[in-house]
Amino acid sequence: MLTDMTTLYLQTLASAAATSLANCTPASIKWNYETGVLLFSLSEASTKAFCGLLDGSIQERLSALILPDGSIQGYCLDEFNLDQINAGKLLLREWEASSPEKKADGEEKDLIAGDPDQHTQHRNTSRGCIQCASHRDSLSYRERLEKAIGTLAQQLMGQPRIASGSYWHKKIYPYQVWLDGLYMFGPFQAHYGILFGQTDMVDDVCQQFLFVRDKLRHRQTGLYFHAMDDSKASRWADQETGCSPHVWARAVGWLAMALVDTLDWIPLAHSKRPYMEEMLMDLLDALVREQRSSGLWLQVMDAPEAKSNYEETSASAMFAYTFYKSLGRGLVTNANRAKIWKKTADSAIAGIITKKVRWECASEPSIQLLQIEPMAELSTFKSTMPRLHLDGICSVAGLGGSPYRDGSIAYYVGEPIVLDDFKGLGPFMLALTEALHAN
Question: Which end of the chain is more exposed for a tag (fewer CB within 10 A), N or C?
């Protein structure tokens, strides 16, 4: 049954991800979008499937990244890099959870940077290290979070924009709008706007999505080009539209996830919400048309006959997640469309499991592993679950830079294909978490 198998794979994958995070010391963990993707995925799995079992591990990493004075380790505001906003979603979630109204039984969440093993005697098994006299930071955990959140919001308030109002992707990529960027800042900015009463920030997010709909949509397929250069100065930019040459699957995946995640924070009565929903539904219908018989999607989506094109894992997981979450949030009311979307998502999960998952053990693990207790110790959770590897993930792709990336088919299919990249593991966990509810 799909529900049982989904639970099995989710537990196994969460264990593998938790193990990899345990090997990241506070000195080595990085504040970047890949870490943000993985931590957010673990947080979703922990909350929705594991009764908070992974919360302590997640919080310890966040505490290592948010320093005692509230600054963010390795972060530089002056780079104006939208990628650096993504992990801020977790800070907002933690800030909300640490409010006095939400603390359970007077528990004080005040995690500290350093080796978590030094604080075992102070650790609640599911909520991390609690405040004690010998481990008190200059700021409380909540104050540190709020300061870090404010820093990220400050970046967005000063982020350079093109004439129409959309953000530059990075300071080093002037006048360029990338699909990736909408995922990196969209959910954070909308959530921040709601939490702190900055309704203009919510309006701004919607407008930036609708700009992308109007300027980057690939008319023949209903998909989206990777990026556009509003100045048309880049060699990769079309001189009429400014768009990059091709439709890269993971860029479309970032956009799809950005839409469904940002809609979590757009009020039902907001004037732009119907247009956002329509944009999402149009994109998902296009993805149905482009799905392969394997259940997966191609790396270069507008070039199905191209030599060396391949079925890419991370984008396929992103699409599955977006289908499942859209269904779970009731964003589609047409029964036939809902049935098609569900079938598409199920096929994608089955395709990834069949073609892209490798088990370290000799045979596929037994369904008996599902008997693990939800509130078991994390060490038991990790030791009980067999390890898997996720293959077929495009390591990275971009435009411009040095060495120069021209956005050609040859470029996209020539980037390294890797195992266990966070950009694949994270979306796969997200898809499986949503699949639990959909099935």
Answer: N
For residue 393, which of 38, 7, 104 has the smallest C-alpha distance?
38
Measured between alpha carbons, how far is 117 from 183 in angstroms, rounded to an integer? 34
Contact, 309 vs 248, CB < 8 A?
no
Which region holds residue 177: left if phi is over 0, alpha if psi is between -120 and 50, else beta?
Answer: beta
pTM above 0.85, yes or no: yes
Q: Retrieve residue 188's tokens.
A: 């954070």
Q: Angle 179-195/249-262 helices, nearest 10 degrees?
A: 10
d(CA 331, CA 277): 7
SS3 of residue 63 by DSSP: helix
Tell me how far apart the alpha carbons of residues 140 and 110 are, in angstroms, rounded to a whole number: 6
Q: Label each residue of 243-261 as H, E or C.
A: ECCCCEHHHHHHHHHHHHH
Q: What is the pLDDT of residue 2?
A: 54
Residue 99, exposed/middle/buried by CB under 10 A (0-12, 13-18, 19+)?
exposed
User: 229 pairs with which residues across the strands?
Assistant: 176
Domains and CATH numbers, the chain: 1-159+375-389 (no CATH), 161-356+391-439 (1.50.10.10)
Phi-psi region of 86 (alpha: psi -120 to 50; beta: other; left: phi over 0): alpha
Determine if the peptide bond prior to 26 is cis (ω within 30°): no
What does the block give as tokens for 190?
């909308």
CA neighbor of 261 nearest in space, from 203, 188, 193: 188
Determine the Cα–Cα distance for residues 231 and 241; give it in Å rounded to an integer.
Answer: 10
Q: What is the pLDDT of residues 40-53, one digit of tens each?
A: 999 998 898 888 88
Q: What three-state secondary structure class fits 410?
A: helix
**pLDDT at 27 (0 to 100):** 67
- The pLDDT-based confidence of 5 (bands split at 50, 70, 90) is confident
Rg (CA), the chain: 21
Distance CA 270, CA 272 (A): 6
Length, in residues, of the chain? 439
